[in-house]
Amino acid sequence: MPELTIEDRKIHYDLHTKPTIYYVKIYMDELNGAQVTAPEKRKPELIEAFLQKKAAWMKETWESHHTDLYHVDHLSLEDGQKINYLGRAYQLILEEGNEFAFSFNKGKFLFTYPEDEKEDEVSKQLIGLAKEWLREKSEKKFSDLHSRTISSEEDAARLGKKGEDAIVLNWRLIQQPKESIKEKIQKLIDEETC
After folding, report:
1. Is 46 domain-assigned?
2. 3-state SS assignment for residue 108
3. Residue 156 contacts residue 62 (beta carbons within 8 Å)
4. Comparing C-alpha atoms, which of 116, 114, 82, 110 is closest to residue 100?
5. Of 28, 44, 65, which one is at a domain's C-terminal end?
6. In Å, how far are 86, 134, 148, 186, 187 from 143, measured between CA atoms?
7. Tens digit of pLDDT for each residue in 95-105?
8. Could you tell me which Pfam families the record lists for this protein (predicted)?
9. How far is CA 162 from CA 34, 54, 101, 190, in A?
10. Which residues, in sequence order, are bridge partners of residue 18?
């Protein structure tokens, strides 16, 4: 499957060629991500160049339609923040300590950081560690949701992909309730578009 990269984020897209159209068209499907239709005779490098120009728009459109999945990317050192995990919002506790650490204990997320570290580095570590924790949990939890083989993938501007024998889900879905994730799995199995 072809892909673009923008700001270290991959955007997978499905390319459909047709003889009866004369321009490249992009549609951002809510489930499957970027759907690109192009003339059959258009050279692949011209399609790629066009999509590179539209990559920022594709990323912005995708994220604006899935804001709940990108909340973790905007964590900061403010009090009162929450992190979603399997559909529930859990309090984030920030504490000064000896090193950077992120954990979940007794229904709360705990992030510790060295007090002498610069604020922008602390925020960067918080976001990175929270995303890493959620990514690891997605690997473990997704496989329990269906009889098919299910694994997680990096964020690729799509919620998932159905293969011949397995389903691959965007790790960010771990923030949604189990029932919502199961619905998306079924939609992928049924090859729906949204």
Report:
1. yes
2. strand
3. no
4. 114
5. 65
6. 14, 15, 8, 14, 16
7. 999 999 999 99
8. YgjP-like
9. 15, 25, 35, 9
10. 39
Mean pLDDT of the chain: 94
Angstrom CA distances, 28 to 37, 68, 145, 154, stand at 12, 17, 26, 18
Number of domains in the chain: 2
> Which one-letter DSSP state was computed for residue 50?
H
135-189 pLDDT, tens digit each: 999 999 999 998 889 999 998 899 999 988 889 999 999 999 999 999 999 999 9
Burial of 39 (0-12, 13-18, 19+ CB in 10 A): middle
CA 69 to chain centroid = 7
pLDDT value of position 81: 97
Residue 42: pLDDT above 70?
yes
Residues in the chain: 194
Nearest to 157 by CA among 89, 55, 25, 73: 55
Helix (H, G, I), strand (E, B) or coil at 11: strand
- Indicate if 61 and 82 belong to the same structural domain: no
Alpha-carbon gap, residue 179 to 91, rounded angstroms: 22
Contact 4, 13 (CB under 8 A): yes
Tokens 């003889």 correspond to 19
One-letter amino acid of 2: P
Tell me which residue of 92, 181, 157 sits closest to 129, measured CA to CA: 92
The answer on 85 and 49 residing in a single domain is: no
Residue 120: which H helix or E strand, with range? helix 119-141
